[in-house]
């Protein structure tokens, strides 16, 4: 066998998995979404999806963007503390704890938040026990706030891990020069360190955006009310009505949202490469 044939043979299993688990479902979704009840090309499924779930489309975009924003902010704080922190106890404790949510599935994270954010959950019981709140003031956070909290708690370690690695690779002389000139650690982080690792941060946030768009367990278990995310709507159309056309139309909308995030990242990367 030639070297080229051997290379094709080695990558054939991977290509087969991509074709079976991604290309075939994607093709099926596109065909089903653009096929009318009587056959032929039609946009009826998209019209129906927009009439029924346009509010959920907007809700999904707002929730995922808000979650990405809070995730990025939390990751910057954690990565900056790990990189520029001078208290060994704080840095060591944070380094030992912040990665734990990486190993917890979304469905387990959602169940944890159900017991933590409920009206009689751990958070409210702790506040009442500490005398910071009266029992009658307890309120449930199992709504859009719970979805954002779950997403941020689950994705922050992933973004922080990538960002901390990028910050650790920066030339320390630049950062030390800023400190010697009297800049605070916060100013060094914001003005010197972050601009150098912005591509890595953007990659991590794009991956988190796509991940959050695909999660079903969190909005279903944490909120379970309207409006909700598109993943819940797709599952409902299939399980309740067997309406694959509308569900696939919602799936195509999700594909477009994911593609939009990827295009923004690619344009930024190409603009940076073409800059003199």
Stretches with pLDDT under 50, minimum 5 residues? none
In angstroms, what is the radius of gyration?
Answer: 23 Å
Strand content: under 5%
- The H/E string reads HHHHHHHHHHH
**Spatial separation of the terminal alpha carbons:** 45 Å
Helix content: over 70%
What does the main sheet amount to?
Answer: none
The counted number of beta strands is 0
Structural class comes to mainly alpha
Shape descriptor reads: globular
Please state the average pLDDT score: 87
How many helices? The count is: 11
Question: What do these coordinates show?
Answer:
Helices cover 78% and strands 0% of the residues. The chain is built from eleven helices and no strands. Helix 2 (44-84) packs antiparallel against helix 8 (185-213). The two termini are 45 Å apart. The mean pLDDT is 87.
Outline:
By secondary structure, the chain is mainly alpha-helical.
Write the layout of secondary structure elements.
Layout (H helix, E strand, L loop, with lengths): L2 H31 L10 H41 L3 H10 L8 H12 L4 H8 L14 H25 L3 H9 L4 H29 L3 H7 L6 H12 L2 H31 L2
Helix pairs in contact: 1-11, 2-6, 2-8, 2-11, 4-6, 4-9, 6-8, 6-9, 7-8, 8-11, 10-11
